[in-house]
Amino acid sequence: MEEEAATVAGGGRGEQTWRRRPPMKVMVAIDESDGSFYALQWVLDHLLGVGGIVPSNEPSVEDTGMITLLHVQQPFHHHVYPVGPGGGGAAAAFYGTSSSFQEGVRLAQAEASAALLARAMRMCSDKMVKAETLIMEGEPKDTICQATEQTHVDLLVVGSRGLGKIKRAFLGSVSDYCAHHAKCAVLIVKPSGDSSQPQSGAAKP
């Protein structure tokens, strides 16, 4: 973050120059897991008033900063398999309804995303913290990192889903990936049962 300078009267000692650090821009990744909402609550409880995140009754966003609530919708992939002898009729019937089926899935995704972000916005409102929402589509790992670059945030906050060793080996960890690939500081918040302190790190450019 760059600092901005201002000159004020020094009360008989001439003019003095002081520097104010711009408000920190924070992004919190939100999904359906309890871990992501725990991470958001941790930010609201522990970063409130720090680095420019202050109650929303302050005069302007420029002075108060803002949390960006990001939700990533995974792209819908549909597959058609032959059914019955030859499979032609069944496949043709599926293709005939695939467009409306896909539209229904997209609508359900949009409603689910809106509900998740509405819950997150209420949490911010309860703490009087300004927030904005952002919905993107793609694979969560890559898309979250892309979002941090596009929005030029200073800090990315992600929750820990607590994957076991087997799932972590096959699926990988979104939080671990972001910690290594996001081009901003990354804070990984673990539930208190997993660790008494959150993890943090600065991603390499």
UniProtKB/TrEMBL annotation:
Against SUPFAM superfamilies, the record matches this protein to: Adenine nucleotide alpha hydrolases-like
Task: Note the InterPro entries from the entry.
Answer: Rossmann-like_a/b/a_fold, Universal_stress_UspA, UspA
One Pfam entry name:
Usp
The record places domain UspA at 25-190
In terms of superkingdom, the source organism counts as: Eukaryota
Q: Where is the signal peptide?
A: none
Record's protein name: UspA domain-containing protein
Species of origin reads Linum tenue
